[in-house]
Specification:
The chain is an all-alpha fold and 239 residues long. The protein is 79% helix and 0% strand. The protein has eight helices and no strands.
Length: 239
C-alpha cells in the first residue's frame, strides 16, 4: 500500500509543479483555488470518455501501411479525441463561469484540465514502473499542458473578445478562434505521438515537437497577459 501511495505521489508531482507555474502566470487576478481544483478533477474524469472513444476508433482504424496506421492513431485517436474531450469539458463546465474573465484564464483552466488528464494517464501507464513515470514527467505531462494551454488561449480570446454568445455560436465570426485552438492543439499532440508511434529513430523528432509546443505556449501566455493588461478587444492576428 505504501508503495502504491508513493507511485501515485510521483504521478501527481509533475502535474502539481506545472500547475503552480500556470497559476503564477495568472497572479495579477488569481482564480479561486476551489475552481482550479475542480478543473483538475474534470481532466481526471475526461479520461473516461476519451478512453471509450479511443477504443471505439481503434476498432475501425486503418490496417494498411504502418505509417498510415501510426498517423491515424496519433492525429485522430490520440490528438483529436483527447484534445476534443478537454475542449468539451472547458467549454461545458468552465467557459460560462463569471471567474473566467480574462484571456489568461482560458490558458489556466485548460491547463488544469490537461494536467488532471495527464495525472490519470500517469497512474494508468506508470504506476507499476517508476522509470515510465520519470520519463513522462519530462515528456508527456508537459506536452499535455503545452498543447492544452494553446487550446485555452484561443478559447479565452473567443470569450473575452466576442462574449459568451460569440464563443458558443457557430454563426459568430469569433467562434473560429475557439476551433482554431482545438485544431492547433490536436495537430501538435498528434505530431508528437506520430513520431513516437513510428517506433523507429524518427521517435527522437518528438522532442523538437515538444519544444515547439512549449515555445508556442510561452509566446501565447505573454500575448494573453499583454492583451489582458491593455484590455484590448482586437489586435492583429497571430500566425
Amino acid at each position: 500500500m505504501l508503495d502504491l501511495a508513493f507511485s501515485v505521489l510521483l504521478a501527481a508531482l509533475p502535474a502539481a509543479i506545472l500547475l503552480a507555474w500556470f497559476r503564477r502566470q495568472d497572479r495579477a487576478r488569481p482564480e479561486p483555488v476551489g475552481l482550479l481544483g475542480r478543473s483538475v478533477l474534470y481532466g481526471f474524469l475526461a479520461t473516461v470518455p476519451a478512453a471509450a472513444l479511443e477504443l471505439l476508433l481503434l476498432r475501425f482504424g486503418p490496417s494498411g501501411p504502418r505509417l498510415l496506421a501510426a498517423a491515424f492513431d496519433a492525429f485522430v485517436v490520440a490528438g483529436l479525441v483527447e484534445e476534443g474531450v478537454k475542449y468539451f469539458f472547458v467549454r461545458r463546465y468552465l467557459l460560462g463561469r463569471p471567474e473566467f474573465d480574462e484571456r489568461m484564464d482560458g490558458i489556466l483552466y485548460a491547463a488544469c484540465v490537461s494536467l488532471g488528464f495527464a495525472f490519470a494517464e500517469n497512474i494508468l501507464y506508470g504506476y507499476a514502473d517508476r522509470t515510465v513515470l520519470f520519463f513522462r514527467s519530462f515528456t508527456a505531462v508537459p506536452m499535455h499542458a503545452a498543447v492544452s494551454g494553446i487550446l485555452g488561449y484561443w478559447i479565452g480570446r473567443a470569450k473575452i473578445e466576442g462574449g459568451r454568445a460569440a464563443a458558443e455560436s457557430a454563426s459568430s465570426d469569433r467562434a473560429p478562434r475557439a476551433l482554431r485552438g482545438l485544431w492547433e492543439a490536436a495537430f501538435l499532440h498528434g505530431a508528437y505521438d506520430f513520431f513516437l508511434f513510428t517506433r523507429s529513430a524518427w521517435a527522437l523528432m518528438a522532442v523538437p515537437v515538444l519544444l515547439a509546443a512549449i515555445l508556442r505556449l510561452l509566446f501565447l501566455v505573454a500575448d494573453a497577459k499583454r492583451r489582458d493588461r491593455k484590455g484590448l478587444e482586437e489586435e492583429p492576428k497571430l500566425y
